[in-house]
Amino acid sequence: MLDPAKAGHVAPDPANADLAGAVLTIDLGALCDNWRAMRAASGAAECSAVVKANAYGTGQGPAVTALRAAGCRTFFVAHPHEAFLAKAAAPDATIYVLNGLPPGAARRLAAAGVQPVLGSLHELAEWRREAGDAPAALHIDTGMERLGLTAREAGEAAAQGAGPLSLVMSHFVASEEPDNPLNDRQITRFTELSALFPGTRRSLANSSGIWLPQAPHFDLTRPGYGLYGGNPAPHVRPARPNPMRPVVRLEARILQLRDIAPDDTVGYNASWRANGERRVATLSVGYADGIFRSASVGNTGSPQTHTPPHMGGAALVAGVLCPFAGKISMDLLAVDVTGVPRDAARAGDMVTLIGDALNVDAVAARWGTIGYEVLTSLGQRHARHYVGTA
């Protein structure tokens, strides 16, 4: 088996970062400030951090290290291997595995001091049999219908004795929608079911849940998306500015500029046609780098044209918002820079794909997805530049 330590990395090493097609800048100071804002909004509850999926694409090691320095002492991941990495970065922290207990993994998790979030009676029985009195969390389903014990199973677990539990938790279905009646139903249901385990800490609120008017903070909040700059309360009315600082910035290099004659087409399947004399910049980035193909912009109306129901991608070139042109390729995309002064855009210049007016939520809306997917799809070929401290 190939040793991962000897396998090399796809991302450019620092010595060659200037040759990368794109640069992803991650502001660890902003990440920590966002955690502090979430902690303040959590009231008396402890504020943890969700760092699954490579800390939402920002890099789990640097994110955990920075957040630990800021004061965070509890982290949530999805898979055991993420938990082991998080434990290495924060040995004194409590690490929870949201996806539960893989069969046969109990002893390894217990030996590493990692706690699974047990989501079934079978998992609970295996953990107690194999891990003894090692603590774990218990997941009660209050409406998501994915993982977690049903109300009946929670009653059985309580009656039989669940053993040492450090946390009882559930997950909101629609906390980003403050007026959704599901929120009140889940809060009530969780309050009732968690009472079956007296003295055990409780957790329900994710990023959006922290900002709900009901303040369902219980003993521990679990922010994720908001930590990385996403708006945790996008549907609050009246609308208010995103309280989170932006964490990621993605810039791509211009490889070439060319003048396009009227009726010339750009990209695969000739899906974009110049409606006059246009100027197009080709960027050194594509869908292999996390730029969704759904962000392509076509205008020919041919059967091969991909015309998304959303507006399509754009870049900020010398401060000017410029739409994508044609289909996004694996390694390249074209941008219509006709509106940019000719001397303001040159080969080698960097243009902004995420950042400033193109914040992660705005980008997601243009690409036809959600900010979570944009962040967690950030490619591995970008040169990564970390700035800021806790």
Automatic annotation (TrEMBL):
Record's keyword terms, sorted: Isomerase, Pyridoxal phosphate
GO cellular component, one term: cytosol
Names of required cofactors: pyridoxal 5'-phosphate
Pfam families: Ala_racemase_C, Ala_racemase_N
Active site: 52 (proton acceptor), 268 (proton acceptor)
Positions bound to substrate: 146, 330
Pathway where it operates: Amino-acid biosynthesis; D-alanine biosynthesis; D-alanine from L-alanine: step 1/1
Residues annotated with N6-(pyridoxal phosphate)lysine modification: 52
GO biological process: D-alanine biosynthetic process
Enzymatic reactions: L-alanine = D-alanine
CDD domains membership: PLPDE_III_AR
Function in brief: Catalyzes the interconversion of L-alanine and D-alanine. May also act on other amino acids.
The family this protein is said to belong to: Belongs to the alanine racemase family.
Name of the molecule in the record: Alanine racemase
